[in-house]
Amino acid sequence: MFLKHTQIAPSLASQLLASAEAAARAIPPAFPLDATVAVNPFLGQAGEDLPMASARLGRVAGARLTQPRAALVAQVAAGEITDDDLAVALIASTSPVKPCDLALLKAQMKAESPVIDALPTVAELAAGRTGTDWPAILARSFGLWAAGHFDRGQALWTPRPGQGAFAAWREWATHDLTPEIAGLTGFSAHVAEAPDTAERATLRASERLGLTPAAAETAFHRLLVDLGGWPQHARWLLWQAELAGDTDTTLTDLLAIRLIWEEAFLDHCPDVAEEWQATVADHAAPLEPTPDQVLDAILQDAAERAHQRKLASRLSDAATHSDRAEMQAAFCIDVRSEVFRRALEAQDTGIETVGFAGFFGLPVAHRPQGTDELQSHLPALLNPALTSTSHGDESAETAIRISARAKRAWGRFRQAAVSSFAFVEAAGPAYGVKLVREALALGPKRQMPAPLPRLEGELTADRKAQTAAGVLRAMSMTEGHARLVLLIGHGAQLRNNPHQSAYHCGACSGQTGEISSRLLARLLNDPETRAGLPELGLSLPSDTLFVAGLHDTVTDEVTLYLDAPAPDHAHDIARAEAWLAAAGAQAKAERATRLPAVHGHDLARRATDWSEVRPEWGLANCSAFIAAPRSATAGRDLKGRAFLHTYDWTADDGFDTLELILTAPVVVASWISLQYYGSTVAPRVFGSGNKLIHNVVGGIGVVQGNGGLLRPGLPWQAVHDGERPAHEALRLSVLIEAPTEAITEILRKHDHVRDLFDNGWLHLFALKDGQVSARYRRGLTWERFSMRDPSDQGVSRLTGITRPRP
Question: What's the whole-model pTM score?
Answer without folding.
Answer: 0.92
